[in-house]
Design a protein that fits this description.
This protein is α/β, with parallel strands linked by helices and 339 residues long. The chain has 2 domains: 220 residues, NAD(P)-binding Rossmann-like Domain (Rossmann fold, 3-Layer(aba) Sandwich), CATH 3.40.50; 81 residues, UDP-galactose 4-epimerase, domain 1. Helix content is 41%, strand content 17%. The chain has a 7-stranded parallel β-sheet with strand order 3-2-1-4-5-6-11, sandwiched between helices. A two-stranded parallel ribbon has the order 7-10. Helix 9 crosses helix 11. The longest helix has 21 residues. The mean pLDDT is 97. It binds nicotinamide-adenine-dinucleotide and uridine-5'-diphosphate. Nicotinamide-adenine-dinucleotide (NAD) binds next to helix 1, helix 5 and strand 5.
């Protein structure tokens, strides 16, 4: 019989792509989201791509009583918990908004999974937990650095909540996936990233500049101690990232592995901001308006993943090329803007 997975935050960017890959892998999916940073188009996109009327429940994971109803209604044994706020700058300006939403929703997930006798939790963590790492590429054993934002702190705290809960409560298992920089969109261009307001992340800023929504991309710093002076990141294709979640669920469902595990989800390749911009221009045959601007406060110089553990243990690896991913990002922007 098909197993069911609850995808919290499944109307959002990573959750919607993951829902598609779960259905493709033979799982039933239930999407829960309060639409605080998304709209129903994400769910509609999932339904159109899969041809499956994936159930959607509009619910706030912080509202435990309302969230509990979903556990009564659906017999899922696994949850992938994406539901969280994610804007780093906003979290510094309004930390309580982030602690309340990200911690409470996580604690409710853990409590309800226990109360309803459900077992497997995958948590969306982030490479931000490594900060400015002393060793590169970072492995899962690379020490975490003190967080420099409330957002980053919620990722560390939620990892710890999951670790401690799994150690204490029989039957509960957890996997924390530490994402590097997710970019791109589904090849159908029916789902993708929908930033609200001015994009904070590099690729949406690039695509909106190419679309004429933003005048000029600012490259934050060309005087870093890297080959071309710009920062290095590990840009992971969104469909590849989505598939890593399927691998994590497969692993838990089959009962393999330890009760609590951590995996880096990246490509293992460091790409500079200039290289990313040049690649975007080349593969989409356009010229981008950009300028060099001062460094952005809080940016780490370089971080990229050692992916050996995910490759070997999860049997997962990133497959889409940067060229393909940046083509998909532009195709999605054109779809959104009707260009
Ligand atoms: P997103 O904002 O597109 O998706 C998150 C979804 O969760 C949104 O649809 C939002 O409406 C929903 N949500 C937020 N709080 C909720 C609540 N209390 N109850 C129900 N729904 C709620 O963001 P995303 O990029 O898809 O990120 C998903 C997860 O991955 C987040 O936990 C984020 O912190 C994490 N993550 C993202 C990145 C990235 O660069 N996108 C990197 C590392 C980790
Ligand atoms: N960046 C940039 N201009 C922008 C947005 C980002 O030069 O408008 C740079 C940023 O300084 C960093 C890289 O692009 O070096 C990735 O930034 P993003 O915010 O996408 O991810 P993160 O900083 O979380 O890794």
């Amino acid at each position: 019989m098909k197993k069911t997975v609850l995808v919290s935050g499944g109307a959002g960017y990573i959750g919607s792509h993951t829902a598609v890959e779960l259905v493709a892998a033979g799982y039933n999916v239930v999407i829960a989201d309060n639409l605080s940073n998304s709209d129903r188009s994400g769910v509609e996109g999932v339904r159109r791509i899969t041809g499956v009327e994936v159930p959607f429940v509009e619910v706030d994971c912080c509202d435990k009583a309302a969230f509990a109803k979903l556990f009564e209604q659906y017999a899922f044994d696994s949850v992938i918990h994406f539901a969280a706020f994610k804007a780093v700058g906003e979290s510094v300006a309004d930390p309580m908004k982030y602690y309340r939403n990200n911690l409470l929703s996580m604690m409710n997930v853990v409590d309800l999974m226990r109360e309803y006798g459900r077992h497997n939790i995958v948590f969306s963590s982030s490479a931000t937990v490594y900060g400015e790492a002393d060793e590169l590429p970072v492995t899962e054993r690379t020490p975490r650095k003190p967080a420099t934002s409330a957002y980053g702190n919620t990722k560390q705290m939620c990892e710890d909540i999951l670790r401690d809960a799994v150690a204490a409560y029989d039957g509960l298992r957890g996997i924390a996936l530490r994402y590097f920089n997710p970019i791109g969109a589904h090849p159908s261009a029916l789902i993708g990233e929908l930033p609200r307001g001015v994009p904070q992340n590099l690729v949406p800023y690039i695509t909106q500049t190419a679309a004429g929504v933003r005048e000029c991309l600012s490259i934050f710093g060309d005087d870093y101690p890297t080959e071309d002076g710009s920062c290095l990141r590990d840009y992971i294709d969104i469909v590849d990232l989505a598939k890593a979640h399927v691998a994590a669920i497969d692993r838990m469902v089959t009962g393999d592995g330890e009760n609590y595990e951590i995996f880096n989800v990246g490509t293992g390749r460091a790409v500079s901001v200039f290289e990313l911009v040049r690649t975007f221009e080349r593969v989409n045959d356009l010229s981008l308006n950009y300028k060099v601007a001062p460094r952005r406060a809080g940016d780490v110089v370089a971080v990229w993943a050692d992916t050996e553990r995910a490759n070997k243990v999860l049997g997962w690896r990133a497959e889409r090329s940067l060229d393909e991913t940046l083509r998909s990002a532009w195709a999605w922007e054109r779809y959104v803007r009707k260009l």
